[in-house]
C-alpha cells in the first residue's frame, strides 16, 4: 500500500483532482489517498496556505498530485511544492491520442516532451524599479549604448542562468532522452534559446547544454531559436523528442504544443528535484469554466499516471494511460473541449470501465 497526497488547489483544479481521486480509489490500485487542508480554506482555518501538517504529509508521501493554482493562496501551494523544494526539472509530455481534438491535419504520432528548467531564468521574479538598477549599475547599457538611467522611469526583471543550474537540467534532459530511446524514441535533445539576441545569457545556457550533451554519445542534438521552435512545434511536431527549454520559453511552448496535440485539458506534467517530485496538469484554474463540472480531467489523470510510474506502480500507470487512450478512441464520453458533452465525472466513469 502506498500513500499519496492530493491537493486540488483552486477552480477546476479541485474538480479534476476530486474526479481523478475517485477514479484511482475505484480502480482498486494499492493507494491510500490523503487530502489535507491547503490553499484559501487552510488560510482561513490554519492561518497558512500550506499548514505544517500538510507539509509533513507531503514530505512522507510516496506521491503528490496537485490540481491548479489561481489566486495567491493556491499559488503559495505551488511555491511550496515547486520552488521551495528545488523541483528544477518540469517534464511536460506532449502526446496525441487517437480521437483527441487536435487542430492539426496530421497529429498522428506526436509524442515528445517539453522539459522546462524551473528555478532560473525570469520566473523567480527578481524585479525592481529602473531607478534602483541605474544606481546599482550605472555603466549597464544595451546594444546601442543606451544606459538604464536614460529612461525616465520603469521596471526591470533579472534573467539568471547559472552553470550549475544549466548543467543539472541538461543532464536531466540527456537521461530522459536515453530512457525514451530505450522505449523506441529517437534519442534526441533539442535545445531552445534566443542565443542570437541574448548572447551572454541564453548563449551561455546553450554552451553549457552542448558541453553536457557532448558526453552522451548515444544521443542526437540540435538547437533552435525559440521563435523557430514554435514554428516547428506546429509544422514538424513528430520530429521532436526532448525539447529542453529555459523557463519562459518552455511555459509558452508547452501550452502551444499541448493545444497542437489535442488541447490544454489533456497535458500532464511532473516536477522533479533530486529527492522530490510532484505531479500536476499544465493548465490553470480556468475561472471561465470553474464550478460547472465540465473541465477535462485527462491532464490530471495522466499526471496521476506519471506519479504512479514514479512511485514504482508502473503497470498501474500503463493501465491507466491505456484506459484514457481507449476512451478517446471510442469518442463517446469526451468533455466539451474535445467536442463532447461529458462531465469530468462521466469521463472518469468511462475511464474506469475501460480499465476493466
Ligand atoms: P487556464 O489554463 O486556467 O485556462 C486557459 C483556457 O483553457 C481557458 O479557456 C480554460 O477554460 C481552458 N482550460 C484549461 N484547462 C482546461 C481543462 N482541464 N478542461 C477544459 N478546458 C480547460 O489559464 P488562464 O485562464 O490563463 O489562467 C487562469 C488562472 O490559472 C490564472 O490565475 C493563472 O495564473 C493560473 N494558472 C495556473 C497554473 C498552474 O497552476 N500551474 C498554470 C497556468 C495558469
Ligand atoms: Mg503555463
Structure description:
The chain is of the alpha/beta class and 356 residues long. It has 3 domains: 1-91 and 266-356, Isopropylmalate Dehydrogenase (3-Layer(aba) Sandwich), CATH 3.40.718.10; 102-121 and 162-261, 3-Layer(aba) Sandwich (Rossmann fold), CATH 3.40.50; 125-159, no CATH class. Helices cover 42% and strands 18% of the residues. The chain is built from 12 helices and 12 strands. The protein has helices spanning 12-26, 39-46, 52-60, 72-83, 130-136, 163-182, 201-213, 226-235, 247-261, 298-310, 314-330, 344-355; strands at 2-9, 31-34, 63-68, 89-95, 111-117, 127-129, 155-157, 188-193, 220-225, 242-245, 268-272, 277-281. It has a 10-stranded mixed beta sheet with strand order 2-1-3-12-11-4-5-10-8-9, with helices on both faces. A two-stranded antiparallel ribbon has the order 6-7. Helix 1 links the parallel strand 1 and strand 2. Helix 8 packs parallel to helix 9. The longest helix is centred in the middle third of the chain and has 20 residues, at 163-182. The radius of gyration is 21 Å and the shape is globular. The mean pLDDT is 97. Bound molecules: 1,4-dihydronicotinamide adenine dinucleotide and magnesium ion (MG).
What is the makeup of the main sheet? 10 strands, mixed
Uncertain segments = none
CATH level 3 topology of the largest domain:
Isopropylmalate Dehydrogenase
Instruction: List the bound ligands.
Output: 1,4-dihydronicotinamide adenine dinucleotide, magnesium ion
Order of helices and strands: EHEHHEHEEEHEHEHEHEHEEHHH
Radius of gyration: 21 Å
**Which range best describes the helical content: under 10%, 10-25%, 25-40%, 40-55%, 55-70% or over 70%?**
40-55%
Structural class: alpha/beta
Going by CATH, the architecture of the largest domain would be 3-Layer(aba) Sandwich
Straight-line distance between termini? 21 Å
Question: How many domains, as an integer?
Answer: 3
The CATH superfamily name of the largest domain is Isopropylmalate Dehydrogenase
- Report the total helices: 12
By CATH reckoning, the class of the largest domain would read Alpha Beta
Biggest sheet: strand arrangement: 2-1-3-12-11-4-5-10-8-9
